[in-house]
């Protein structure tokens, strides 16, 4: 039996209006009362697999090894889409096989399809709420030490999503995109810190939607209140922000908008 | 002493902007540090007793026996409305006596009025926040094994709300209504699966607001993306949905709108 | 070692869309798995230090002594603003030194600046997410019994904010302001119950934005549904509400609007 932290994290698009997340917790605690449940977020845009994967990758490294991370953003619930369980980075990941685990599976020791219905909730299986009937009971059992290999057969073809990565132009300029807008209106891009470092310092001029925002600074407070700035964020990606304000509003920017450095 | 699970669930209309829920948790944990607190939802529409009862009934069956379920949706706080504690389905329910426990009380072993002020929070009683001063401390004590009968006298007349139930027409057609719209825009109706089953299969045509949506299918993915569908939901009720979309927007539908089968 | 309750509360402006709060919890639990985490609120308006202080003061008295209360509403993250740790009211408070602890520090036994980087998260320190890299690990250690004096040197000049307090006019009338609007649209003012009590009963006429709402009543239900009322709220402050409705909408009122008694 592998060591487990006793923690189960939940990441869904269920929102807070309905009791769906609470129901999943009831199922987990019914099977394993000692589990410590932690919410990552439940406000992923409905059925937005890319956003869910982004939130997961930014979160799991900060949990103890042996944590079970459950993602239920599942537009294909009730269809023949598979459910996958991956062992990676010393922890366990459980999610629909829709690409939400693309980065996790790329580094996984093992990926298994969840097929053993003896691990599911007793009673008839709903076709609309696998979070309750499959993900929660399987997560409880994984948190209790169930081996990943015990959930079903190993697979080598989990669904992978192609996330757009920045392109580097002949002259060295980096062309990337906004991949997330957070609550503060910060624009998180897919340009990595090491890509910035590869440019000479005087070439690190950042442009968002064609508008100049200067070279990266070391804190929001390095510019005047209300002024835009570029900064390397807490995940190691280039972020465009406004000191004391919202870059989303300042630039009228959206996910997918272009960012250019150099 | 009856067995308790050590879990207390909270279902309120307090929202997430104010710390009211956190304050209730502080009071519970001050009295009984080992309690495991689970949020069902705090985004019930303000003072919407019907919505709260719906959320409760869909949630409590998934928790272990001996769980204490606390509902604070309480438009009558500070008036002479009673507070009730019911023992039902092997668990404990604590709520204002405003009909939110209608279904629970119908199946209860015992219903008591909460009157023993020795169980309340020490100090002056607020007339606006009984969640903090009465519900939380009584819940902590119930979670610790306090008998339901110890909270106050048994009553036999808890407030009951008449929830509209579907009518069956002479020819067998079922006329029901939308009772809940969830975060995904799914329209949950009050038509039960067994009522559908009583109709011949070729008579199970579902209409919402007069618009045809076909006979119930087995998963959202059984129709094309963007297409509407009918399905039996995870609670055993007829639901109208849109694959990958929102039936609420598609049909411009609201709670209370009519649904017809047959 | 001082006694600790094992509880850590979190109060931020991080919202629920991003996993920032979950990440902080991962860091706390990695260092101290037995901590019980309680959310106060994460929906403080972005960077609104005053609102955060108001929520904190209304919440901490309901937690056991020895609780660690963490506030991360931190417009100055990454600048030279200090981080402070205060021992007050038998509990521990950890926050940026931006005035959010004004009331707490006024009653503190000791206030220390957090400077010992050995207490921070291992690895490079982000300049945008001190919640993860400093507040969470220091909170975990404080919950484990670390003395406040061990975080860094004592200071005697924490930032204090001047919160507007009601003025009393020569004739005795009280002029105050709305300091908070809650989810129900209740208007919480800065007029204290003892200030009301100092007026003769027949002088306690409350006006909001110049409109008469009568003398304080003892419950929302003391007036007709839809009617406005004044009441002493659960924190001991004068509140203007509407029975079964929203005073915010009824009066088209905002934080900062004037209230007058007498």
How would you portray this structure in words?
- The structure is a homotrimer of 262-residue chains.
- In chain A, the strands form 2 sheets. In chain A, strands 7, 8, 9, 10, 11, 12, 13 and 14 form an 8-stranded antiparallel β-sheet that branches. A 6-stranded mixed β-sheet of chain A has the order 2-1-3-5-4-6, sandwiched between helices.
- Chain A has helices spanning 20-31, 49-59, 102-106, 130-143, 193-197, 247-251; strands at 7-12, 36-41, 68-72, 83-88, 91-96, 108-113, 167-168, 174-181, 187-192, 206-208, 211-214, 228-232, 237-242, 258-261.
- The first copy, chain A, has 6 helices and 14 strands.
- Chain A has 2 domains: 7-151, Rossmann fold; 167-261, Elongation Factor Tu (Ef-tu), domain 3 (Beta Barrel).
- Chain A is elongated, with a radius of gyration of 20 Å.
- In chain A, helix 1 (20-31) runs parallel beside helix 4.
- Chain A is α+β, with helices and mostly antiparallel strands and 262 residues long.
- The model of chain A has no long low-confidence stretch (mean pLDDT 95).
- Chain B binds chain C through residues 13-23, 25-27, 29-30, 33, 37, 46-47, 75-79, 81, 126-129, 132-133, and chain C through 5-7, 9, 11, 16, 36, 38-43, 55-56, 58-59, 62-64, 67, 182-184, 218-222, 231, 233-234, 239, 244, 246.
